[in-house]
Amino acid sequence: MPKKAPRRTAERILEATLALFNRFGEPNVSTTLISAELGISPGNLYYHYPAKDELINSLFERYERSLNELLGAAEGVRHVEDAWFFLHSLFERIWEYRFLYRDLNDLLSKNRLLETRFQGLLAAKTRAIRQLLGGLGRSGAVQIDSRELDPTADGMVALLTFWLSFEYVRDPRHALEPDHAQAALLRGAQHVLHQLAPYLEPAQRQHLMALSSAYQR
C-alpha cells in the first residue's frame, strides 16, 4: 500500500491550536506554547501564521464552512425527531470549536474581522431555525402564530449560542472536558427543542418527551 502523504505543517498547526484553545481557552494559549506542543520553532509557526489572530481566523473559517454545510439541512426538517438530530448535530459542530463560544466576548472585542463574520454566522443560524420552524409548520407538527415565529426562533438561537457558557458556569472545572461532551450536547438539544413544546401537536409533543426520556437514561 502507498504511504499516506504527511500532513502539511499549516494543517498540523491548526489542529494543535484548536486542541489547545479548546482545552485551556484562547487567552491562555500563546504561540510559544503552540510551537512547543508541535515541536517546531516559533519561526516556523510565524512563517505559516504571522499573528495569533490569523490562527483564530483560520479556525473560524473552517468552523464556518462546516456549520454552513449543516445549516442547509434545516429545510428538510419535518418532524420532532428530524429537529432533534439536526440540533444535536449543530451542537456537535459547536462543541468541536467550543473555544469560540467559551471566550466569545473577549474574542469579538479584539478581532474586528471575527466580529463581522460571527454576526453573519449568527444570521445564518437564525435563518436556518426559521426554516426549521417553517418545515415543522408545513408538516403540521407545530402550530405557531406568525407573530410568535421570530421571537421563538431568536430564543432558540440564543440558547444554541450561549448554551456552552451556561454549562461552563454551572461546572467550570468539568463542563467543557471531553468526558462531559455527550451529556452537555444532549441537554442543549433538549432545551432548544423544548422551546417548541407549547406549539407541538399532541403526538409530536409526546414523541419529544419520549426522546428526552430515552436519552436521559
Structure overview:
It is built from 11 helices and no strands. The chain is 73% helix and 0% strand. The chain has 217 residues and is mainly alpha-helical. The chain is elongated.
Short overview:
This protein has 217 residues and is mainly alpha-helical.
Structural features:
0% strand; 217 residues; disordered N terminus; 73% helix; mainly alpha
- Mean pLDDT, to the nearest integer, reads 91
The major β-sheet equals:
none
Derived structural class: mainly alpha
Following the backbone from N to C, one meets helices and strands in this order, namely HHHHHHHHHHH
Task: Pick out the low-confidence regions.
Answer: 1-6
Query: Could you tell me how far the N terminus lies from the C terminus, measured between alpha carbons in angstroms?
Result: 44 Å
Instruction: Kindly provide the radius of gyration, computed on alpha-carbon positions and rounded to a whole number of angstroms.
Output: 20 Å
Proportion in β-strands:
under 5%
Task: Let me know the number of strands.
Answer: 0
Number of helices: 11
Overall form: elongated
Query: How much helix is in the residues?
Result: over 70%
